[in-house]
UniProtKB/TrEMBL annotation:
Organism: Pseudomonas nunensis
Record flagged with keyword Transmembrane: yes
Chain ranges passing through the membrane: 48-69, 89-106, 118-136, 142-159, 171-192, 204-226, 238-261, 267-285, 297-320, 332-351, 363-381, 387-405
Record keywords, A-Z: Membrane, Transmembrane, Transmembrane helix
Record InterPro entries: NnrS
Coiled coil regions, renumbered to chain: none
Protein name according to UniProt: NnrS family protein
Amino acid sequence: MHKPNTTGGSELARDSGLAGDKSVEAATVIASKLAPTRAAVFSLGFRPFFLAGAGFAVLAVAIWALWLYGRLPGAQPIGGMLAWHRHEMPFGFATAIIAGFLLTAVPNWTGRPGLNGWPLIGLVLVWLLARLAWLLPISPTLLIALQLPFLPLLAWCLGRDLVAAGKRDNYPILLMITLLAGCQAMTLWGFVADDAGLQRHGVLAALWLVAALMSVIGGRVIPFFIQRGLNRPAAAPASPLTTKVLLLGGLLAAVSFAAGLNDTPKLWLAALFLMLGAVHLLRLWRWHDRGLWRVPLLWSLYLAYAWLVVATLAMALWHLGLMPQQSLATHSLAVGGIGGLILAMIARVSLGHTGRLLQPSKTVVLGFALLLLAGVCRVLLVPFSAAGLGLSALLWCAAFGLFLTRYTGILLKPRV
């Protein structure tokens, strides 16, 4: 019988799934040597951004739910609570986690030192100021000026290392960050023009870009996690065709949302989403191993990725006229897929990069289960009961809150 891999040291670093030509541990050691006197939390990108992103996930969804149920009277953010919620979940929460992940992964793909110390502090402050800007008594123009810099700065930080190292196979990831910046600009322009439709198009395009990014990264790391976590023999390299299909299909889906083509059902878009769902399902079938159900860090990733199948097939059903609410597909992706993959990924990466055993506490395993239930409530309960929104939000906040209770100390302290 194969036992789950819970080893530490260099093998643990490799098992974090971010290794490229250099090991993950090498870049972590480089960063620590470059800044031995600096706070551990700013030694590598995953530490401050995972903390900030998880904390914001709790705060933002709690505020949104309290407002929906009339429990948050008083002043609203500039542009109203709906505009704030639409913007902040993809461009505040998701981009923080993406930044933390990629600022940790790219140094290992390139062998170059990762962003740390004062430059990293500066980037975190740019993200934080953008979040606080919604609450400040400023003009919409200044609000936008504070929102826009983060993603271009992130793209520049990542791009300079990828270009210098000649890592052309990773350029699509850089392209998606750049396109996300374009989606944010579209969303904010809709805010200035008081065009709710344009806001919605920009946000939905961003969500499907994030899904495409996660399908690319997930295709790299999830099978590796399963193979290493269960001590299975190394499998033959997967065909790059699947990743290319999901990348191009995801980009096309994002463009279709940006162009407003999903405002009304279309048969060719039903075919696109059916194809994407089938490829995601094929991946899950290829990755499946009965042993993964014994390992929380594996089944949490696997089930979260399965939400991408649900979201794409739900969009196909909507375009075929077989599902009444497109928002159910959107929240399958946002809550179950993006939220679930983020929680599972940051739990694993944080353990691996701080030199700890790949054994999450029971508290965090409970968080995995609660986030899965949050997705189920948002998609399956909401059509029948308004209480589904509140329950889903409560479960979401509890899941990320449990992560913070167990991981805040880990992310603030030096590597073991």
